[in-house]
């Protein structure tokens, strides 16, 4: 019986440790849907939501991507490239960039613009 309990525990632990499918938080999906036609509303949604934990790399990197894009579309000056670097660090390592590819390249361009404007190299 103890042996069976140990096997069940191991299988359960393995199932919990495997990566779950990447589904965006509802607030992130909503902000993404607003981004093109109402970037100011997207910014309000992103600013009012609880920032995803950095331990959830996908949600956090997506939040960083969307908040950077929303601020850019609302002509809010970037004072740091830390959010941009989080986005680039995460998405450069991913194999499935199809959905975020265009946004990723815009963020990469924003970082280059930020560096050329400020002379900052991080």
Keywords, separated by commas or semicolons:
122 residues; mainly alpha; disordered C terminus
Quick recap of the structure?
With 122 residues, the protein is mainly alpha-helical. The chain contains 6 helices and no strands.
List the helices and strands and how they pair.
Elements: H1 2-17, H2 26-34, H3 39-48, H4 57-73, H5 82-91, H6 101-118
Helix pairs in contact: 2-3, 3-4, 4-5, 4-6, 5-6
Account of the protein in words:
With 122 residues, the chain is an all-alpha fold. Helix content is 66%, strand content 0%. The chain has helices spanning 2-17, 26-34, 39-48, 57-73, 82-91, 101-118. Residues 117-122 have low confidence and may be disordered.
Shape: globular
The tally of helices reads 6
User: In which range does the helix fraction lie?
Assistant: 55-70%
Mean pLDDT: 76
Distance between the amino and carboxyl termini: 57 Å
Low-confidence stretches: 117-122
What structural class should be given to the helix and strand makeup?
Answer: mainly alpha
Major sheet: none
Radius of gyration: 18 Å
Strand proportion: under 5%
Give the topology string: H per helix, E per strand.
HHHHHH
Count of beta strands = 0
């Amino acid at each position: 019986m103890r042996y069976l309990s140990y096997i069940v525990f191991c299988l359960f632990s393995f199932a919990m440790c495997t990566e779950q499918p990447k589904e965006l938080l509802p607030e992130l999906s909503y902000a993404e849907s607003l981004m093109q036609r109402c970037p100011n509303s997207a910014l309000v949604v992103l600013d009012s939501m609880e920032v995803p934990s950095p331990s959830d790399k996908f949600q956090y990197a997506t939040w960083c991507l969307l908040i950077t894009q929303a601020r850019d579309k609302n002509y809010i000056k970037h004072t740091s490239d830390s959010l941009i670097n989080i986005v680039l660090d995460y998405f450069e390592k991913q194999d499935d960039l199809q959905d975020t590819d265009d946004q990723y390249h815009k963020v990469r361009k924003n970082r280059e613009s930020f560096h050329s404007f400020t002379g900052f190299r991080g």
